[in-house]
């Protein structure tokens, strides 16, 4: 059969583990942690990322991200830390975008010094900043696009060209976009990482991570990852595979909803600022238009000072104040007290994350219901003179 890259087809059929015994429509679950080692082939063991369900889902992720190989981890941070430890060693240097997930930034601050890895955070991901940060011992460029929580957009072709010109490994966190809205490998990025807890899982009940890359890079990653033990149980792998079957449907609806919500908030007199790459006012809108299929279901915004943020969150009835993101339900949180709470107040200020910033994950509900919920909460939260 000719290669098929239609998103819905890939979500449903790629990497499908067949039920060879009964011909069931869904994949069987191989829950065993002990397999016969005799005969030809690889020894199967969950921590080696090579059990049947793990391998099948890795193939699905590779197909979705247009890479040769994929690996499934126990969390997004397990995937990120394994990539860093596999491709960096004592004495190496990595260039990192400053506006990245707080857990990743905290990992660098807390762990790199312990193992003698140097890193430089750059404000603007452009040729000048990349070149100015380059050192003789630089080995990797790590970016996130769109970024969490300010939705900054990175030029992936620029990063890829810079990395290749300087023999560096390029890695990107693709969580906010999902492989439905963006496939970094098509722009030359070496390693694509996801917190599968988010859009890939999509129902706020799975914690997982994924890495997609070439087979050469995967072989190197596997040698380190198997030592850190960040594998995922096959039961959860099966649940994640099931969830991915509806990924394209969910993300397309969430992206469509988010565009409507972003326009509403951008025009609202009580909203100070909206960060969403689908808005023409977004500083990297044209870049997002070039490298994204749609602009995603994530945004962030700031209420004007006379709106009581705590009261606003309390008055929401449909949109749920909650950790994490990208479920079918709409959720909202304050990054300063959640996703970026591990950073100091000064570090958050440097990243442009104010205490009044709210990150909004738009779900699949009808947009008019979400708009009404926001409007009511805003109206009840204006501070009285």
Summarize the structure.
By secondary structure, the protein is of the alpha/beta class.
Which terms summarize this structure?
385 residues, alpha/beta, 14 helices, globular
Compile the SSE list and pairings.
Blueprint: H1 7-13, H2 52-65, E1 69-73, H3 76-87, E2 93-97, H4 102-115, E3 118-122, H5 127-133, E4 138-144, H6 156-165, E5 169-173, H7 178-181, E6 191-195, E7 209-213, H8 215-228, H9 234-244, H10 247-266, E8 271-275, H11 285-291, E9 298-303, H12 309-315, E10 320-321, E11 331-333, H13 345-351, E12 357-361, H14 367-379
Helix pairs in contact: 2-9, 3-8, 12-14
State the distance separating the first and last CA atoms: 69 Å
Question: Would you tell me the structural class of the helices and strands?
Answer: alpha/beta
Helix percent reads 25-40%
Strand numbers in spatial order across the main sheet: 1-7-6-5-4-2-3
Instruction: Note the total helix count.
Output: 14
Low-confidence stretches: none
Order of helices and strands: HHEHEHEHEHEHEEHHHEHEHEEHEH
Portion in strands: 15-25%
Radius of gyration: 21 Å
The largest pleated sheet is described as:
7 strands, mixed
Compute the number of strand runs. 12
| Shape descriptor | globular
What is the mean predicted local confidence, pLDDT?
95
